[in-house]
């Protein structure tokens, strides 16, 4: 005979698989990602990604034409 732990379903978990999970799995810890100290958030990440993508596309496109 199989023994299963008692799992109470949560109303926020609508999918049957999520309903079978224990309650502690579905809770979100507020301090999961600690803030970085001593480092200022960088606002130029979008520009860096754009320039990297542009250069990669330009290089690939130019290599097929040239």
Low-pLDDT segments, ≥5 res: none
Count of helical segments?
3
Order of helices and strands: HHH
Number of strands: 0
> Radius of gyration from the CA trace?
24 Å
Report the major sheet: none
Average of the residue pLDDT scores: 77
Distance between the termini: 70 Å
Classify the helix fraction into a percent range.
40-55%
Oligomer: single chain
Structure classification: mainly alpha
- The portion of residues forming beta strands comes to under 5%
Shape summary: elongated
Explained architecture:
The chain is mostly helical. 45% of the residues lie in helices and 0% in strands. It has three helices and no strands. It has helices at 16-20, 23-26, 45-65. The radius of gyration is 24 Å and the shape is elongated. The termini are far apart. The model has no long low-confidence stretch (mean pLDDT 77).
Which tags fit this structure?
elongated, mainly alpha, 66 residues, 3 helices
Helices and strands in order:
Blueprint: H1 16-20, H2 23-26, H3 45-65
Briefly summarize what is shown.
This protein has helices at residues 16-20, 23-26, 45-65. With 66 residues, the chain is an all-alpha fold. The longest helix has 21 residues, at 45-65.
């Amino acid at each position: 005979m199989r023994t299963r732990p008692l799992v109470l379903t949560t109303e926020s978990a609508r999918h049957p698989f999520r309903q079978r999970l224990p309650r502690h799995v579905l809770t979100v810890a507020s301090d999961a990602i600690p803030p970085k100290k001593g480092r200022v958030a960088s606002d130029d990440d979008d520009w860096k990604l754009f320039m990297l993508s542009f250069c990669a596309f330009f290089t690939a496109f130019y290599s097929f034409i040239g």
